[in-house]
Design goal:
It is an enzyme of class 3 (hydrolase). By secondary structure, the protein is an alpha/beta fold. The chain contains 14 helices and 16 strands. Strands 1, 2, 3, 4, 5, 14, 15 and 16 form an eight-stranded mixed β-sheet that branches. Strands 6-7-8-9-10-11-12-13 form an eight-stranded parallel β-sheet. It binds zinc ion. The site of zinc ion (ZN) has 6 residues, from loops.
Length: 407
């Protein structure tokens, strides 16, 4: 007997409706009139079934630290968190992280990657809390923890290096940072690649999150990725500077990004709030060249970044909401473009995070969301309810008002 049978679901790029049978956490059959009984049944009634949302870039250590309003600039937000870091204890980190993860699951996100700061002020408290949350939410939200470090010094200092080695020994999933914030950007990138290679973990870096027309760190990360044989295991985030450079520089950089097999994550909601604040006349919006990157065949995802902290005082851990913001700022509004946006928050984000067996197909893990819409466009524009969220083949969340959907 199957564990769950979803009847009459509409898929993102399919015609008509299908039945989906789930057993032991995986999709075992998909098609018309799938036979067999199941312990639980969901009548989708033609609604849209998507693979669950993947928020591939958040900061759980910062989330909900500034619920009454944000800072006035990126620099001020970084300072704000550094100042708070000394007093943040593990219980506070756990409580805020838990709140965001619950909210995210309610909104259909079942995989998330969080960057967690490792610094002198915060020590490893953020990492320890995130690793505990990874355990606590196992089977609900698959959490990947990236140890993130950066600083104004020309290269990482020995005490910080010790903390990072300890974070890796504790079991973080990867290494990250914001090397463009240091005058010794290349030394920081070199060190991150060296350490990641030593522990065989993926890399996920904030790149050129700046108003300046600069692709210095993105170009360097791309060349370093090839040199280290790390193609397919590196993500570059933000890439705001790429939006501000001339066409020739952009074209050259995008070709390098493609060759290095980087995934790019754009964080429109956060960068719209933070960037271009001193521009007069031509106001930059701080969002990278998504269309050009996609046209070159680069895997591009969107994610939430900051949720109600000094970096961005908005956000509901809701990837469908982030999708609407992404669609509006990128002017992606045709049905085909909105389907592409939906894929950026699901398939593309899953690829950036290296998730295996992802999708709505036989053999994929049954992490699914049933949306109260029939098309991606309808779901994004209508900001519709997530009727139910299925994690590992079980109904994890029900938001349906009609009780006849789940039988
Ligand atoms: Zn970030």
């Amino acid at each position: 007997m199957n564990d769950l049978l979803i009847r009459r679901a509409r898929l993102m790029d399919g015609q008509g409706t299908v039945d989906i049978a789930i057993k032991d956490g995986y999709i075992v059959a998909a098609g018309n009139n799938v036979a067999g009984s199941a312990r639980q049944m969901v009548d989708a009634s033609g609604r849209l079934l998507i693979p669950a949302f993947v928020d591939a870039h958040t900061h759980l250590d910062k989330a909900l630290t500034a619920t009454d309003g944000g800072a006035g600039s990126l620099e001020a937000a970084i300072e704000d968190f550094q100042r708070r870091s000394k007093d943040i204890d593990k219980n506070d980190l756990l409580a805020r992280g838990r709140q965001v993860l619950r909210l995210a699951l309610r909104h259909g996100t079942t995989a998330m990657r969080t960057h967690i700061t490792v610094s002198e002020n915060l020590g490893l408290r953020g990492i320890e809390a995130a690793l505990e949350l990874r355990e606590e939410f196992a089977g609900k939200v698959d959490l990947q923890v990236i140890a993130m470090f950066s600083g104004p010094e020309p290269e990482p200092a020995p005490p910080l290096k010790e903390l990072l080695e300890e974070a890796l020994r504790l079991g973080v999933d990867g290494l990250g940072g914001a090397p463009h914030l240091s005058p010794g950007m290349q030394q920081w990138v070199d060190y991150i690649f060296e350490l990641a290679g030593k522990y065989d973990v993926p890399i996920d870096l904030h790149a050129d999150e700046t108003d300046a027309p600069s692709v210095a760190s993105l170009e360097y990360i791309a060349s370093k990725t090839i040199q280290a044989g790390y193609q397919g295991r590196v993500v570059a985030d933000h890439c705001c500077g790429l939006a501000a450079v001339d066409e020739a520089t952009a074209g050259r950089t995008i070709a390098a990004v493609k060759e290095a097999g980087l995934s790019i994550i754009t964080l429109p909601s956060c960068n719209l709030y933070l960037m271009g604040r001193n521009d007069k006349g031509l106001v930059r919006r701080g969002v990278t060249r998504v269309r050009e990157l996609q046209a070159a065949g680069v895997n591009v995802a969107y994610a939430s970044d900051n949720i109600r902290d000094a970096f961005r005082p908005f956000g509901n851990a809701n990837m469908l909401e982030e999708g609407l913001i992404t669609a509006q700022v990128l002017q992606m509004g045709t049905p085909a473009e909105l389907e592409q946006v939906m894929k950026m928050g699901t398939y593309n984000a899953a690829a950036a995070m290296g998730l295996q067996d992802y999708g709505v197909k036989v053999g994929a893990r049954a992490d699914l969301v049933l949306l109260d819409a029939t098309t991606p466009a309808g779901a994004i524009i209508g900001q519709v309810e997530k009727v139910c969220v299925i994690k590992g083949g079980r109904v994890a969340v029900r938001n349906d008002k009609k009780s006849d959907i789940i039988i």
